[in-house]
Amino acid sequence: MKILNRWNVLILVFALWSSASLASELRGFSVTGECLKTLIPDRGAFQFNLESLEAQPGIAIKKSTEAYNQLKERVQKLKLKNALIETTDFSVYEEFDWNNNQRKSKGFRARMGMRVETSELARLGELIQLGADLKIKNMSGPENFVSMEMRQKEHESCLETALKNAKDKAEKLAVAGNVKLGPVTSVVEGDAVVVDPVPSFRGMAKMEMASSADAAPQVDPRSEKMRVTLRAVYSIK
Fold first, then answer.
1. Which residues, other chains included, contact 9 with Cβ-Cβ below 8 Å and sequence gap of 6+?
2. Host domain of residue 120
3. Residue 82: which pLDDT band, with cuts at 50, 70 and 90?
């Protein structure tokens, strides 16, 4: 009698498991359920870049830091809901001009970046206006996006809808096949996929805008669609 080695045993076990799984599906219906949801962005952000060019690096750092602190204080006074202020960049470097192949120092440029996030999307325009009031020349945004917390919450709430959709399909198949549908025997969750994603709005704010607070622009968020799928197997009675 030939003795099976360990690999042959593993292959045999896998083959038996695959055959049992296939036989189980052949005795029922394997269907895909899905849920499509529209997600409205719940977070917004705006980027400020503060720069100072001076003859000495220490002076450049001091001025850009003062401008950063002034901006931070003004942002905090807005009392935006769920606000998050993040320093995104800090650098100091010497700039040069070239003339007749000769390099001449222009001075030292200090740069600090600030990113402000909030859940009050309707007030993002106030950040744009604030940058204009403070004569900040380099600003970008606003950016609207769906937070990870909301995406996870909507994904989980969509699973029940997807399973119901799968059951509806299985029941229709059972009627068409003139059989009685049994209970679900297995469910495999799929990934959430963004369908036809819309890029978040990004613009370049300009200093030339009016200094009046009444001129703060209104920024409307754009939605995205998320599809959640799962695979379910229903038995036949």
1. none
2. 43-146+199-211
3. very high
206: domain CATH number is 3.30.70.2970
17 to each of 3, 25, 123, 175, 233, how far by Cα in Å?
Answer: 21, 12, 58, 30, 16
65 assigned to some structural domain: yes
Query: CB count, 10 Å around CB of 210?
Result: 11
Residue 221: inside a domain, yes or no? no
Angle at 206 between CA 218 and CA 74, to 5 degrees: 70
Report pLDDT for 16.
38
Residue-level pLDDT at 222: 78
Domain total in the chain? 1
As a whole number of angstroms, the distance between CA 153 and CA 44 comes to 18
Residue 144 burial (CB count, 10 A) = 24
What pTM does this model have? 0.70
